[in-house]
Amino acid sequence: MAGDDAQNEPSCIASALALMGNTRTYDTIVLRTYDVGEADRFCILLTRERGRIAARARGVRKLKSKMGGSLLPFRRVQADVYEGSSGFLVTTTHAASMLVGNDQMQTVTAAQQGTELLQQLLQDDEAVPEIFDITATFLEECSSGNAPVLAFTVRLLAVLGVFPTREQEWRMPAESIAFLHVCTGTGEWWKGVLPPTEQRRSIERLCRELQHMQNPNKHNVLQGIQILASA
To answer: Is the separation of the CB atoms in 31 and 44 below 8 Å?
Structure first.
């Protein structure tokens, strides 16, 4: 009986929090996680409804936890999140799927590059559904072996209103212009054909400059997240 009571305790807590009226269900992509304490996990989440949020999940690293496998990087999950005075708390998860199922190092590295970019450029609690959608597509493409990191970077900067929108401002060769047209257009942005190496480096350099303009204190932001996770 004692064991049953202990097993039912998380669901009882979740039910109690839900009754308080501050729990919402979010369509969520897990960007990054940090282990906290003996069994908790601190999660950086991208939600369709609230944008990027940081939430704690209690006890998910215990062997009997039903949420532990859902709250890992590159998972898409429906998460019930309680918002209290001390921040967000994930109470339950359901309908989880793995966006990046390929365990090859190149695939995982590409996915990490994309999610790190989101952590650097996005502000907390600002919903941009289009960014959620392109992130889901990017991670799925990474899993299929495409890994369109540069295309995703350009698209993200364009959605944020940072990337130049007029062809005259690009001042690049035809192959680069064709690639940028696809990345910033209304169609399948991830299918742009990469230009030759030197041209690609020029685009990457432009993206780095625009990223710095968008968030010059990105290293301080990431450091702050890590400090918060360890608290």
So the answer is: yes
User: Which residue segments constitute the domains of the chain, with CATH numbers given?
Assistant: 2-98 (2.40.50.140), 105-219 (1.20.1440)
In the numeric block, which tokens belong to residue 14?
């979740």
Q: What's the pTM value of the predicted model, to 2 decimals?
A: 0.83
What are the structure tokens assigned to 54, written together? 């940081």
Distance in angstroms (rounded) separating the CA atoms of residues 114 and 161: 18
Give dist(CA 178, CA 174) in Å, integer: 6
| pLDDT tens, residue by residue, 57-91 | 999 999 888 888 899 999 999 999 999 888 999 99
Query: Judging by beta carbons within 10 Å of its beta carbon (0-12, 13-18, 19+), is residue 230 exposed, middle or buried?
Result: exposed
Q: Per residue, what are the HEC states of the chain?
A: CHHHHHHHHHHHHHHHHHHCCCEEEEEEEEEEEEEECCCEEEEEEEECCCEEEEEEECCCCCCCCCCCCCCCCCEEEEEEEEEECCEEEEEEEEEEEECCCCCCHHHHHHHHHHHHHHHHHCCECCCCHHHHHHHHHHHHHHHCCCCCHHHHHHHHHHHCCCCCCCHHHHCCCHHHHHHHHHHHCCCCHHHCCCCCHHHHHHHHHHHHHHHHHHCCCHHHHHHHHHHHHHC
